[in-house]
Amino acid sequence: MADAPVAIGVLQRELLLPQAGGFCSFEGWVRQTNDGRAVSGIDYKAFRPLALTEGQAILEEATARFAICAATAMHRIGYLAVGETAVWIGVAAPHRDAAFGACRFIIDEIKRRVPIWKQEHYEAGETGWVACHDVR
Amino acid sequence: MRRIELEYFAQLHDAAGCAAERRETEADTAAALYDELCAIHGFSLSPACMRVAVNAAFCPWDQPLRDGDHVVFIPPVSGG
């Protein structure tokens, strides 16, 4: 959980392991439109203690399910303008299949169950909470 | 009566008009407490689309509440 931009290179270097033969990352960016509405930015809120434990649980599940060496995830909190990186996932693995699979699993699970909410700010001046991923 | 610490997020924060509050309640489960708060704050989200966390851990809606518990109702999440 980061309140300010994070140097992605630093996160990535932690995954440079001698046993890794492949690295896969995913970045989620703030997009300029959603459902046809012009977006100026997104304010991310989190229930931090639970977001951190749930995020850690997801990384541990990914490590158990996929043949990977290590995985890291970062999520920004606060107001982000269009183009900023809201979420970053990095996975290092001996082979690419596991790296791709784990990366996909981690972002999907973050979106499904980590208590983070985005409030979109629209160019027209209003705001709206974005619905809604399955929380089961 | 139990003293419960509540924190609100997203739509529930907007509806309650505050980020946190302390309430005394006779509600004995998280589900009963949410029903009580719906009447007070006009929450419109259905528990069926939410989860609940007690003391910063997800728990079942029928988990008994204890004096001093910290309760967060989790609206549908939208990170990423």
UniProtKB/TrEMBL annotation, chain B:
SUPFAM superfamilies, sorted: MoaD/ThiS
GO annotation, biological process: Mo-molybdopterin cofactor biosynthetic process
Record keyword Zinc present: no
Alphabetical list of InterPro entries matching this protein: Beta-grasp_dom_sf, MOCS2A, Mopterin_synth/thiamin_S_b, ThiS/MoaD-like
Coiled coil (UniProt feature): none
Any one cellular-component term (Gene Ontology): molybdopterin adenylyltransferase complex
GO MF term list: nucleotide binding
Keywords: Nucleotide-binding
Keyword flag Membrane: no
Residues in the signal sequence: none
Family recorded in the similarity comment: Belongs to the MoaD family.
PANTHER family assigned: MOLYBDOPTERIN SYNTHASE SULFUR CARRIER SUBUNIT
Protein name: Molybdopterin synthase sulfur carrier subunit
Species, as recorded: Gluconacetobacter takamatsuzukensis
Lineage: Bacteria, Pseudomonadati, Pseudomonadota, Alphaproteobacteria, Acetobacterales
